[in-house]
């Protein structure tokens, strides 16, 4: 390897697309940036000049070192060499069965310097020491963000076109990446790469920085799978035109278990970034300063090392403190005094962030809080994750655009940057410069903790609105409970958590569409109740009463006066109760079920808007009475049979494969009765449309009390061993302790063994009813 500090002879030439890293002997690595990267670099180059007696600030603050900063990147030389050797082995031996993929994962905790190691360390080293005599290589750099396929397509397009906003071409490449070939393989990335000009002489390396975005920000499992499948297919191609280097936070390793091949590569091929040694820390402090014309005293270096060593995620804090110290040097301040003033390495970031925040007015502080709310994602392994976000998705109708922009400008000033801004127009986005801000700025930390649920609810609404805007389809507009919840949030949280302009329009159009749908559903509900009155089951109604109810319902249909349905619905409820008293159980159950369903629909309609004087509480009363009467009837007329079968240990078994005919599906016994109570007309008839499956909307109609009572009966007669799930919170177990079901759970026996889709729908209902823990695995 080259001497650590004397031979770092590379230069960086910039172009419209990115940078060319050129070694002393002419070897070149072309780095293709996203538009976000280019804007960040332009901001840095346009920052204010410094006095001639001292060089520009050589430290990066919270930002990562990039290839253009390679000349100031010190302390990681041994790790750079290790990475280069590992990548060389992957590249040169990829045709061997042991190492079939050219994919190098760089792992480590937040703040350990993964991005800087890849950008300012490995990429320039590929220029100094090219692989297989490849004097030219291309490196495309992406942050996956919420839409990794789009991010990948965008950087591929930039390789072939100087167009700054190639929307149509990006969409075309995205569609190609999302398409399977005849063998069912996602090979779009490989095909696109193979068609790139000069690919044989200048292979492409894709550097995916912050790969954890694929799990933390990408909401769609299918998109995540397609993205990863494309990477794996392209990196295993024997032409060796394409390789991947990725940085991944180690606390996201568990997420990769859903992708077996990737999981194996992370295990076999990854390099774990260790904490810097004392000597490495010293070089990271001393060498950049020397190149910029200043020498720290040994005591100052030792003090900085002492405050950094052993502190988790301390590298960005050290760089931030050094940035502040350098600014003090420019003003003539002694480094030791500056370090003391800023509260040491650990306190510098928090103190500076608080100072900037305190200088805002109260109205501006509200914008600052909202900005950081929009730029945070709540993770599982770590508390907070940075989330690049379009600025328009944070700007609300109540904001003054000029004041909003002024706040952003002050937060993104190069010398005190807390956020970065990139792009332009509608694609202008912001990002927190480093997650250390969330950890060390205590006031922000406390505020995020306090408002976590509200922030997540706001982000869910904003994400749904962005999907509607992206696809421009009314199918993505909110409806029912989703619309009601979004409107409630908009009304109650408008001062502290105002929704963006896009989200407000999304809710407005959703409400408009729901009003049209409600008008139609109103007529359908009235028609359904009218049909019930006219059915053969109500033959006992005498002419005068029947004509009166028909007249009321006809008037309801004509005037859409929903309130006029109530008298008719109450009379139907009374007559159903009389049917029950006359032991006409089947008919009574049918009318209770239908009344509960119709009244629930009427409640949903009424809850969206007050339509023609509707009375939601009256419909709620009908719904509750119909449901209670249904369950009372089952308790009196149906559950006793199940209890007796369980007492006699008459369990039965599955003997057929036709879910719509339970008499043919089970042999006589408790399983058959339980199935009939849940699925069929014998009980609550969860399978409303008789298709042999229980969908999520159908599962939503199931009474929590019914599900609870059903399990109580089973447990009561099986020594508490047979329930929806077992004691280890597993519902697919074959060792549940329930001997009557041969080790299976109740969920497995009457749902999963018949239809997996139905079991998942009912499982979610059980969670919403709080009958099983929410952390029970859906799969």
Question: What would you say about this model in short?
Answer:
By secondary structure, the protein is an alpha/beta fold. It has 32 helices and 13 strands. Helix 6 packs across helix 8 (221-235).
Oligomer: single chain
Q: Under the CATH scheme, which class of the largest domain?
A: Alpha Beta
Unreliable spans are: 1-7, 38-52, 536-563, 607-614
Q: What's the average pLDDT?
A: 79
The DSSP helix count reads: 32
What structural class is derived from the secondary structure elements? alpha/beta
Largest sheet: 8 strands, mixed
CATH architecture of the largest domain: 3-Layer(aba) Sandwich
Q: Compute the gyration radius: what is it? A: 33 Å
Give the total of domains.
4
Q: Which fold name corresponds to the CATH topology of the largest domain?
A: Rossmann fold
Strand order of the largest sheet: 1-2-3-5-6-7-4-8
How many strand elements?
13
Cα(first) to Cα(last) distance is 50 Å
Helicity, as a percent range: 40-55%
Q: Which term fits the overall shape?
A: elongated
């Amino acid at each position: 390897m080259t001497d650590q500090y004397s031979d770092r002879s590379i230069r960086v030439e910039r172009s419209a697309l990115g940078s060319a890293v050129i070694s002393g002997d002419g070897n070149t690595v072309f780095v293709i940036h996203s538009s976000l990267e280019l804007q960040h670099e332009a901001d840095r180059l346009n920052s204010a000049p410094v006095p001639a007696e001292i060089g520009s600030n050589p430290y990066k603050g919270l930002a990562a070192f990039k290839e253009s900063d390679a000349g100031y990147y010190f302390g990681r030389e041994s790790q750079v060499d290790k990475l280069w050797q590992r990548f060389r082995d992957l590249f040169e031996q990829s045709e061997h069965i042991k190492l079939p993929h050219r994919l190098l994962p760089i792992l480590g905790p937040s703040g350990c310097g993964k991005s800087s190691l890849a950008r300012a360390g490995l990429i320039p080293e590929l220029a100094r020491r090219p692989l297989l005599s490849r004097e030219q290589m291309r490196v495309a750099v992406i942050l996956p963000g919420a839409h990794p396929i789009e991010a990948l397509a965008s950087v591929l397009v930039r390789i072939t076109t100087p167009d700054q906003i190639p929307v149509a071409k990006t969409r075309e490449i995205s569609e190609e990446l999302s398409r399977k070939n005849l063998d069912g393989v996602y090979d779009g990335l490989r095909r696109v790469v193979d068609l790139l000009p000069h690919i044989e002489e200048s292979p492409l390396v894709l550097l995916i920085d912050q790969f954890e975005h694929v799990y933390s920000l990408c909401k769609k499992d299918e998109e995540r799978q397609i993205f990863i499948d494309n990477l794996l297919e392209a990196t295993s191609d024997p032409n060796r035109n394409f390789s991947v280097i990725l940085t991944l936070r180690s606390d996201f390793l568990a997420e990769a278990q859903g992708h077996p091949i990737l999981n194996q590569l992370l295990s076999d091929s990854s390099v774990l970034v260790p904490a810097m040694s004392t000597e490495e820390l010293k070089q990271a402090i001393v060498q950049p300063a020397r190149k910029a014309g200043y020498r720290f005293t040994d005591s100052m270096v030792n003090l900085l090392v002492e405050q950094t060593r052993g502190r988790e995620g301390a590298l960005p804090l050290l760089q931030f403190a050094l940035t502040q110290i350098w600014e003090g040097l420019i003003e003539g301040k002694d480094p030791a005094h500056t370090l003391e003033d800023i509260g040491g390495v650990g306190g510098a970031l928090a103190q500076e962030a608080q100072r900037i925040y305190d200088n805002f007015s109260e109205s501006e502080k509200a914008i600052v809080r909202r900005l950081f709310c929009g730029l945070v994602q709540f993770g599982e392994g770590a508390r907070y994750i940075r989330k690049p976000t379009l600025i328009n998705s944070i700007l609300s109708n109540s904001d003054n655009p000029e004041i909003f922009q002024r706040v952003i400008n002050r937060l993104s000033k190069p010398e005190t940057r807390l956020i970065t801004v990139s792009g332009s127009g509608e694609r202008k986005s912001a990002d927190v410069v480093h997650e250390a801000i969330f950890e060390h700025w205590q006031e922000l930390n406390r505020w995020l903790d306090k408002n976590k649920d509200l922030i997540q609810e706001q982000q869910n609404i904003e994400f749904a609105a962005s999907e509607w805007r992206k696809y421009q389809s009314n199918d993505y507009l909110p409806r029912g409970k989703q619309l009601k919840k979004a409107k409630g949030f908009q009304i109650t949280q408008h001062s502290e958590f105002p929704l963006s302009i896009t989200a407000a329009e999304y809710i407005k159009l959703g409400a408009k569409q729901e009003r049209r749908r409600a008008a139609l559903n109103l007529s359908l509900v009235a028609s359904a109740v009218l049909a019930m009155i006219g059915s053969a089951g109500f033959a006992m109604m005498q002419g005068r009463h029947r004509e009166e109810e028909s007249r009321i319902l006809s008037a309801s249909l004509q005037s859409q006066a929903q309130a006029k349905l109530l008298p008719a619905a109450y009379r139907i409820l009374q007559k159903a109760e009389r049917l029950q008293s006359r032991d006409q159980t089947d008919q009574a159950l049918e009318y209770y079920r239908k009344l509960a369903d119709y009244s629930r629909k009427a409640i949903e309609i009424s809850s969206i808007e007050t339509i023609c004087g509707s009375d939601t509480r009256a419909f709620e009363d009908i719904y509750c009475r119909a449901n209670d009467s249904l369950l009372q009837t089952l308790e009196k007329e149906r559950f006793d049979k199940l209890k007796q079968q369980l007492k006699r240990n008459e369990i039965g078994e599955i003997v057929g494969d036709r879910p719509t005919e339970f008499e043919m599906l089970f042999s006589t016994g408790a399983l058959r009765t339980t199935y009939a109570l849940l699925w069929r007309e014998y009980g609550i008839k969860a399978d409303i449309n008789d298709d042999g499956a229980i969908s999520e909307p159908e599962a939503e109609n199931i009474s929590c009390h019914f599900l609870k009572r059903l399990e109580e009966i089973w447990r009561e007669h099986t020594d508490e061993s047979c329930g929806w799930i077992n004691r280890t919170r597993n519902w697919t177990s074959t060792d549940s302790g329930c001997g009557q079901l041969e080790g299976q759970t109740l969920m497995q026996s009457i749902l999963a063994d018949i239809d997996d889709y139905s079991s998942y729908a009912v499982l979610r209902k059980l969670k919403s009813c709080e009958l099983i823990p929410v952390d029970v695995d859906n799969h």
